[in-house]
From TrEMBL:
Organism: Aspergillus tubingensis (strain CBS 134.48)
Identification of the protein by name: Uncharacterized protein
Source organism superkingdom: Eukaryota
SUPFAM superfamilies per UniProt: Soluble quinoprotein glucose dehydrogenase
PROSITE patterns: WD_REPEATS_2
Stretches that traverse the bilayer: 33-56
InterPro entries cross-referenced by the UniProt entry: Quinoprot_gluc/sorb_DH_b-prop, WD40/YVTN_repeat-like_dom_sf, WD40_rpt
Record bears the keyword Chloroplast: no
Amino acid sequence: VYSVVFSPDGCILVLDLKNKIIKIWNTAINNKLYILISYFNLIYLIAFSLDGCILVSDLKNKIIKL
C-alpha cells in the first residue's frame, strides 16, 4: 500500500495499492464501492479536495487525474 486516505467526513476510505490499483470503500457499511486501475503508470499519491467531492491521483509520468 502506497497511500491510505479518508474523505474529510471519514465515510470514504481510499487505498492506493502497489499494483496500480485504487480501491474505494464506504466505511459506514464496510462495502467496496469502486476499483480504479491505472494501466500505464504507477500511482504516487492520492488526495481528496477539502469538500470531499474530488479525488486526485498523481501518476509516475507527472500527470494528475481528477
